[in-house]
Amino acid sequence: MFLRKNRWYEDLVLTVSKIFFLVCFFSGLNGLNQEVMARDIFVDNIRGNDEFTGWNTAINADGNGPVRTIRRALELARAGDRIVLAKNEEPYRESVTFIGKNHSGALSGPFILEGNGAILDGSVEINPELWKFYGNGIFYFRPKYIAYQNLFLNGKPLSRAEVPGHEIPEIKLERMQWCMHEGNLLFKPEREHLPGDFPLRCAGMKCGITLIHVEGVEIRDLIVQGFQHDGIAAANSARNVFLNRVKLRGNARAGLSVGGACSVWIMNSVLGDNNAVQLWTERHSRTEIKNSELLSNTAAGWLDHGGVVMMDGKEIKGGLDERERFRSEENQKSEHVEVSLVEKE
Description:
This protein is mainly beta. Helix content is 13%, strand content 39%. A hairpin with a 2-residue loop joins strand 23 (308-311) and strand 24 (314-316).
């Protein structure tokens, strides 16, 4: 009797083990199939709806159509997918984060953000009622973020004046020029005009795209502008990130920052008009620059806080001085890379 019960118990254990093995096996196949079968997720900030599936560019009666935000597309995404943006006159006004396995590459290829020339913009409209009179034709208001700022008119950064210190008898600005002073943003409009007469915007979102613990990501054909910190930030353990044909412009700190344990490739791209620096690198990072420009028109081309930086196969060190305009050797020979930061009318 004891032997019969013991044999019954062994048979039960064996059956359960087989079932567990089959469940694990087919779950593994399903996960592998998900990685191999990468999908396109479409985003349209004008015609899209975050209640849609994102599987089609056209809107169907069954709710199959583009989502409205990049944030929603990232919620739907899994490893190896491609997020495809529709290019509209209205910029995408959001701040997004790529994080973890679902926003990394897979067996099918890299995780892709396909911009199609769209603009990701972090600026916010300034309420005209916030402006107060300062004196000498200058007005001021206190923005939400004061460590780094920028002022925009019709999507383009206005000229910024450098204020030498806190104890100055009088701040002098040219017409349509601005500066930061003691946490306030000061602006001098055209004669016989008030700041509210202009569609002014300032940096109002922290960072355009933040990458954390991802690997095998490609961002291409995208303009990132108007953010209070960085346009794109490879913040922590973002490896094998490829930026192809991107423009990072008019951000209040850096166009691109590359943090520790991150590796980023910049290809056929332009970084310029950023307020503090165009490229910021940290220790234990690696940045490869290929056929691209770091324009030192508003700030240093590169601020070296550590890491390895390669330009067209040659290691460079020590940062790039703001008084010099740096161009990679291969780009000097190329005519097909557009270097203008201002879109053609």
